[in-house]
Design a protein that fits this description.
2 domains; two-stranded antiparallel ribbon; alpha/beta; 16 helices; Nucleotide-diphossugar_trans; Spore Coat Polysaccharide Biosynthesis Protein SpsA, Chain A; 7-stranded mixed beta sheet
């Protein structure tokens, strides 16, 4: 984003603090992600405690009646925020930069984020020169020699960065900054443009640029207050779809309390069940063991209405692994009859799941 980039036109007053979301496109899953995240934040508030929530979106009509303020994004703004290098996560950095004009403290929230505690607990850690990020992921020295980071390493050398004087890289699923941090965001956007000028190998350049701009500054990790389920989306998408199919998307006062019925983690078997599965698979190795574990975990998921609608995601994980195999490996795994449970694999805890799982795998592998 440059000073002459088009900006949203909004009469909103500057707030003491705000939760800020960026949602664009017409995919149902992202709209439901955002709405469910908002509900988890509202559910944690004390009675009558205020919370300013703002949504930057190209579809403000999707949030009509919700306790949020929407800021409409035109096609012109969306194009400008993406920049000339085709890196769509640049829009997130631009959204945060614009958000700084709307509040003294801004907590930017990725839509695939659940609040486990009161958002006010997170705001307490934001201040001048005091930042909040989702979590620490790794140090530059631990990834700099990976093939997909080599090009970025060359770019960083121009800034005097080596494996020995690197910096911490944070996940930016949550980002807390103040209205005095415009230079930091502008620097992040400059780095994004520099590092995506040619073809780029890393989709997380946005959060690397932000981490680099924050290097040597105090950063508080927020993962004790929130859960960012970016690696487990399938499970939560299924549960959120079920939630809104039951209760509808029209906001009403009961929705925040109702959202607490939805589990905040994916379905994992009990410790005893996990131990049994580990024992059953003790003689399996490599990819076969990985597939067997996923199939059995889905069958041994705890009894819960919301787990019932998402346990197939374990089987989906297994199918993705099998699809990576060549035809010979697949034939060896299933044996001569793909309609029966593989003889070399332990059977699921629920006998009825044998045919359910096989039917699911056959359908996926046929595509």
């Amino acid at each position: 984003m440059t000073p002459d980039s088009p900006q949203p036109s909004t009469p909103l007053e500057k707030a003491p603090q705000q939760l800020l979301y960026l949602v664009y496109g017409d995919k149902d899953v992202y709209r439901r992600e955002a709405k469910f995240s908002i509900l988890t934040a509202l559910a944690q508030l004390k009675k009558s405690e205020p919370l300013c929530i703002r949504v930057l979106t190209d579809r403000p009509q999707d949030y009509a009646g919700w306790p949020v303020e929407t800021i409409a994004l035109s096609d012109e703004i969306m194009t400008a925020w993406q920049g000339t290098n085709g890196y769509h996560h640049r829009r997130k950095a631009c959204a945060i930069a614009y958000g700084l004009t709307l509040a003294h403290k801004t907590l930017f929230v990725d839509t695939d984020t659940l609040f486990l505690e009161n958002p006010q607990r997170v705001f307490e850690h934001i201040g001048p020169g005091q930042y909040v990020m989702d979590r620490f992921e790794y140090d530059w020295r631990t990834v700099c020699e990976r093939a997909d980071y080599l090009k970025l390493g060359t770019c960083l050398q121009a800034h005097g960065v080596t494996p020995d004087n690197g910096f911490k890289l944070y996940n930016s699923g949550l980002c807390g900054v103040t209205d005095g941090d415009s230079p930091l965001l502008e620097r992040s956007i400059e780095l994004i443009d520099e590092w995506t000028r040619d073809a780029f190998d890393i989709h997380t350049i946005e959060q690397i640029a932000l981490s680099f701009a924050m290097r040597d500054k105090p950063v508080h990790e927020a993962n004790r207050y929130i859960y960012h389920y970016f690696a487990e989306k399938g499970f939560f998408h299924a549960m959120q779809k079920h939630f809104f199919s039951l209760h509808g998307e029209r906001f009403r006062a009961e929705l925040p309390a109702l959202c607490t019925e939805v589990p905040r983690c994916k379905p994992i078997p009990s410790p005893w069940q996990r131990l049994r599965i580990k024992w059953k698979l003790r003689n399996k190795r490599g990819a076969v063991k990985k597939v067997g574990r996923a199939l059995l975990y889905g069958s041994a998921a705890p009894e819960h209405p919301y787990y019932e609608v998402c346990r197939h995601e374990w089987w989906e994980s297994a199918s993705r692994e099998i699809l990576r195999w060549d035809e010979g490996a697949q034939k060896k795994f299933f044996g001569p009859d793909r309609g029966r449970w593989p003889k070399h694999l332990p059977k699921p805890a629920k006998s009825a799941d044998e045919q359910t799982i096989i039917a699911y795998l056959r359908k996926r592998l046929a595509h």
